[in-house]
Amino acid sequence: MTRNIMSTLSFEIHPFQSYSSSSFQIENPKPNLLNSSSKESTVDIIHAKVIKNGTIQHLHVGNYLLNLYVKSQNLGYAQELFDEFSDRDVQSWTILIAGFNRIGSSKMALDLFTKMQKESISPNKFTFSSVLKCCASVNDLRMGKAIHGLITRDGIILDVVLVNSILDFYVKCGAFNYAEKLFELMTEKDTVSWNIIIGAYLQIGDMQKALSLFRWLPVKDVASWNTIIDGHMRNGLESNALDLLYQIVEIGPVFNEATFTIALVLVSSLSILELGKQIHGRVLRIGIHNDGFVRDSIIDMYCKCGQMEKASVIFQSLPQDFVRHNSKISWDESVVGSISCSVMVAGYVLNGRLEEALKVFGTMVREQFEVDKFTLTTIVSACANVGLLELGQQIHGHLLKIGHKVDVFLGSSMIDMYAKCGRLDDAWSIFRQTNVRNIVLWTSMISSCALHGQGREAIRLFELMQNEGITPNEVSFVGVLTACTHAGLVKEGHKYFKLMKEVYGIKPGVEHLTCMVDLLGRAGRLDEIKDFIYENAISHLTAVWSAFLSSCRVHKNIEMARWVSEKLLELEPFEAGAYVLLSNTCATNHRWDEAAKLRGLMQEKGVKKHPGQSWIQLKNRVHTFVMGDRSHPQEAEIYSYLDNLIGKLKEIGYSTDVNLVMQDVEEEQKEVLVSFHSEKLAIAYGLICTSHGTPIRVMKNLRVCTDCHNFIKTCENAVEEALGVN
DNA sequence: TTAGGGTTAG
């Protein structure tokens, strides 16, 4: 039976509560769409009746009932019923085997098949078809071959349907030679046979062969079209897939559910919202919007096109019944399944709405939905983005406990999560434990080293990865270039930039170009940046000028800063960053009047700067602070603690760095302003609330300022406890 | 025979 991960999950998602003007608020979700009703299902009623009138004693009635439970994916009851049978025929076994296979419990199904043989029940062609499907889904080529042998040995009549299922099995297990041979030997072939073999060519990426067979195929059914469109999409040929989709509209058969699903996935990957809406409209007109596949694809399409409100409306409008694997489910097909929830979680994460993602996830846990590795991957990624180390660790522990294999997706997001939460060692340990490593997993580890300033290590990994025959992609280059930047490895940076363009043929994107500007800028080579910008014809890129400006500030070059910010503001007159950076540069150079002018200009134009925020998670609450925040219930205690702490730190050499305060105010007042930066408030609160030796992790939406950086450093020097502050 | 959800940068 499919294992419901949550049945062994020990953690609970507690409601978070946050104070102050937080953008990160996780409340106890209101179960508005989650009032699961436990209405008695139709199968149960039938069950009760046949028991009462005694017809359950008849095998065919029992099998009929068994089939009803299986069809409603109610395998627990199906198994119970099956166990109660005094007599079982091949049909009883086959129904149950197929049922377990359908819900993804291929192992259970195969065990049943073994038991059935032990009881000397001869399988029929339906049994064989089902068992072959199981072999395909657990990728057991050997077992499948043995079944193939059994079919031949037992003299089962090889009708085209059965041969097709053998053919399909070989294709799914990647045994193309067997499939090709079998296909050649087939005396009778139907469209299904052709569809399977076309699918095989698509699977190995032989587009020409697949397309020529498809063109030649005299009778193309909707599955032929679905196969060829989907195959193009999976091979990264989205525009060809779109052409084919238009062709099926013109000359092909009527769409079925699969066509709509494929079309919606295509639309999502191309982000063509308008077409997606049209498809949605057609789905509604035809009335197949309650099909699970179609519905989830529609929700996903809106998520991927950034239309979370629309996605949420559809999600919330679904009937208030829930499908949970292995539990009683409604007969009504239009129920929210765990995949719908999973899609919503992923959508919220994708669109940066992490608190909402966690809300849906919390509901899934509470309502005992099946939380599979898809959902967990997304949640771990959400943890990475907000620094929820505890939840990430709990998921990790849970995976260990249930012995769940960490695949490349989960592995990558866990590496990222640990690294972003300041635990590079744990990121390494995940990396070392993985036996299958794809480009994303490698890149996660490379970027993690880069994030922690371990440039040389990142480069070593990058080289190791290449030696293993993995081709770096554009993200890997962002990682290695960032590593060079953070470690001041200018020469290496140039080397990899060249490698990317010339050896791997990757066109530098904004991220790579910005990295290069940053690399030169940190090394103080401001003049070289100018050359770089003009050589690469990238003077139209805002991000590049922002990086340049930030370098000007670091190197206190006010003339250059003025010139750069002019360029930047020409491109982006409402970009707060330019004003802030330039005025900070002016302030650093004590040009108060200029700084004030810029502030005035900002106000005049209505340019708003993102307020700096810091938050800390203590127990199950997230406490958020902004500069000079007085909204926290314990504000008096926080301020007096901080005041006291700063006093003590000053005794051992800390002095407030007021250069970053852009206002022209008295020195004393400047000191007050930097003293109440949000991160200091969060740290103070963390120190108040935790016992000696507890690491303190503070998350921020902006970069830490120099003064806070020094403040933390002095804290670390002063106190022996390692304050694991990010 | 065909179809849905997940990872890395920014």
UniProtKB/TrEMBL annotation:
GO molecular function terms listed in the Swiss-Prot or TrEMBL record: RNA binding; zinc ion binding
Lineage: superkingdom: Eukaryota
InterPro entries: DYW_dom (IPR032867), E2_motif (IPR046849), E_motif (IPR046848), PPR_At4g14850-like_plant (IPR046960), PPR_rpt (IPR002885), TPR-like_helical_dom_sf (IPR011990)
Keywords tagged on the record: Repeat
Entry-linked Gene3D superfamilies: Tetratricopeptide repeat domain
Chain ranges of the DYW domain: 653-719
Any one biological process term the GO annotation gives: RNA modification
Coiled-coil stretches: none
Name of one Pfam family that matches: DYW_deaminase
PPR repeat windows: 89-123, 190-224, 337-371, 438-472
Stated family: Belongs to the PPR family. PCMP-H subfamily.
Record NCBIfam families: PPR (TIGR00756)
Protein name: DYW domain-containing protein
Organism per entry: Nyssa sinensis
Upper taxonomic lineage: Eukaryota, Viridiplantae, Streptophyta, Embryophyta, Tracheophyta
